[in-house]
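re: the backbone from monday

yeah here it is again, tokenized this time
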């Protein structure tokens, strides 16, 4: 039995359990339409990772201190606290890295849960990460380079480009995530109206080599398409889900039928979708 494990990592803001279910439903539908491999030979595990309670607890403590203050635009302040607060709390700094470690521990736990199911069977890992979750996933893979081999990395609405400023000059950001050289893919999915999502291959030669494709597409429904609010629409949008499902289906055919992964054909498939 072969196993494919897909870790799903959310972005900023408080997230309910099951936040990824619309995505999982679409993903299973498209995998089924793209793959002809009998599911008796391979099992695909979709594992949702929810780290928001870690930062939400800290934000709630801070918000309580200001609860009796007469401050304007309280709704907008709450939004700022949720969005900016997650990013600030996550930073690994000289003053402490407890939040950073706790969030990464949530990924460790997900891996341990999956290991109990997989056992000694062959397994390949894919990460699908949205927004700040893509930064978290990137950091995690870097910190666990020798113990965690990643086949596929799908970033959606990712601000990783902004995080490269931690290296000073963008040319110094020389440690992007590395996927399997032969069979893996890093596809960066973004909407050019999403001000949080940025292309990655233009950063420098290291990202140009690591990222297979910057997939610029339209995300969102009638009210948030062609708008910065498109940032919240990736999980439910077929334009984002299809390239992920196609790669998982190709991996199934490679593992079970022995078919060679053809990178060029896969990228041509993505280009045939709603690509700007």
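seq for it, each position gets an aa:
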């Amino acid at each position: 039995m072969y196993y494919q494990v897909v870790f799903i990592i959310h972005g900023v803001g408080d997230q309910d359990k099951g936040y990824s279910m619309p995505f999982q439903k679409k993903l299973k539908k498209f995998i089924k339409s793209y793959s002809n491999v009998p599911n008796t030979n391979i099992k695909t595990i979709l594992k949702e990772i929810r780290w928001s309670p870690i930062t939400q607890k800290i934000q709630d403590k801070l918000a309580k201190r200001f609860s009796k203050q007469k401050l304007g635009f309280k709704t907008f302040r709450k939004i700022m606290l949720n969005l900016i607060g997650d990013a600030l709390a996550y930073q690994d700094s000289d003053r402490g890295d407890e939040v950073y470690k706790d969030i990464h521990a949530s990924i460790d736990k997900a891996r341990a849960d999956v290991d109990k199911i997989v056992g000694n069977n062959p397994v390949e890992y894919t990460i699908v990460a949205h927004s700040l979750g893509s930064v978290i996933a990137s950091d995690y893979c870097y910190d666990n380079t020798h113990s965690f081999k990643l086949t596929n990395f799908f970033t959606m609405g990712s601000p990783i480009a902004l995080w490269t400023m931690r290296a000073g000059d963008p040319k110094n950001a020389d440690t992007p995530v590395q996927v399997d050289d032969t069979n893996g893919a890093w596809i960066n999915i973004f909407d050019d109206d999403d001000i949080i999502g940025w292309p990655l291959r233009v950063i420098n030669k290291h990202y140009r080599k690591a990222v297979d494709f910057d997939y610029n597409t339209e995300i969102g429904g009638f009210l948030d398409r062609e708008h910065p609010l498109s940032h919240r629409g990736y999980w439910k949008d077929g334009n984002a889900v299809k390239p992920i499902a196609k790669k998982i289906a190709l991996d199934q055919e490679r593992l079970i039928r022995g078919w060679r992964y053809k990178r060029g054909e896969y990228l041509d498939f993505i280009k045939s979708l709603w690509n700007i």
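The longest helix spans residues 98-118. The chain is about 45% helix and 15% strand.
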